[in-house]
Fold each of these.
Amino acid sequence: MDISGASAIVTGGASGIGAAAARQLAAKGAHVVVADLQAEKGEALAKEIGGVFVSVDVTDTEQIKAAVDKSLELGPLRALVNSAGIGSAQRTIGRDGEYDSAFNLDNYKKVIAINLIGTFDCIRLAATAMSRGEETATGEKGAIVSMASVAAFDGQIGQVAYSSSKGGVVGMTLPVARDLAAAKIRVNTVAPGLIDTPIYGEGEDSEKFKAHLGQSVLFPNRLGSPDELASMVIELITNSYMNAEVVRVDGGIRMPPK
């Protein structure tokens, strides 16, 4: 699918994997809406790639609609990349056996609200706009790529909220693809492994920690780069025969319990 001259939305697009995807979409000729809460980074990236920044909290339906409407001002909406998400670490029960020490339910709900419900809300609204568009030369109206995680399959101790949310993204991929097939919209998911993003911090200690983590990757023994993830996102958007798939991009890692 040719996305040159079309518009694309990238949630969580101001940094990390989202920013790499936004840059590669722009390099393909797309007009990119960088949808994020990080205004300074988002505006700087949008200026760099000739796109537009829109402040979006993916738990706010009206803000998502505003991003979709802005994308339609730039060109036909052909691509959505769901990269917004948060993590959380806590064990299901505490060591003292007290109810109040169990996993904080509000935190669990927040992770689900952002990573899972937010992803679906973006999909249903962007797909609605895509469905009203004209078909491309390849007979499509759009393509959607969501970001899951290897934690959807190999969730570690303390990752119950994150793994639940990403497992939900994996689980929705096929049924949403089936729902949207009639509208000629493809849906795929990427499940990243250990990726070198700002979450690991900066400096000598950070580099040592990342090098240690990289040793658990089958091959190559390092963290992946955001560009390596983004290249798969672009493939899933532009390859017209990729649909309803969940693709691990993880160097062959299988996460241990902890």
Amino acid sequence: MSTLHFTLPDGSTETVEVTRLLNAGYAGREQDEVQAHIAELAELGVPGPTTTPALYPVSPYLASQADEVAVQHERTSGEAEWALVITDSGVLLTVACDHTDRALEVHGVAWSKNASPDILGTRAWWLDDVRDRLDDITLRGYVGEGDARQLIQDSTLGALLTPDYWLDVLAERDLATPGTVLISGTVAMTPGVDQFADVWSVEMHDPATGDTLEAAYRVVPMPAPIG
């Protein structure tokens, strides 16, 4: 398990022991577009899901707020997402980046999700406080080399299935319990932008309040193996 700490807008904090981590996939609200994306991935050798949206269990210790992600090779990248965090006090919403092994993804999406951590922000909002304006909240992903930064994902939470949709799914499966973290699935990447960068960052911005949640990390190659 891992322990996550979140600061709320009023300055209070919430600490969560992660007991269950789940990654949603193919979770766009427009499922016709999702099916087109699945067809594109199939051409790259990525196996399609048996149903959409999909939900992949991930080892709970992979929920992290680290500022570095160690990788075994150069074909790994992040995905801009939101995360639900169920606590004893209620449900938190924060920003997240699902770092994924793209080389392993062609052998199994569930396997690739367990090869790298899910990076979550250190600040969060109560879901109840933003529920009525979720579709207007922006979600952006950036990649970088050194100090440079380039926009690679730019959408709103309105493009994805809602937190309440996933809370219903969790409740049906008796998974809506404190310690459960669910990562939303992602939005489209901008064609032509290299996702295999050494820095990934994600921002979730609420236009109504001007508040922005952020998560960022460096991608660090591991030493070459011996043997």
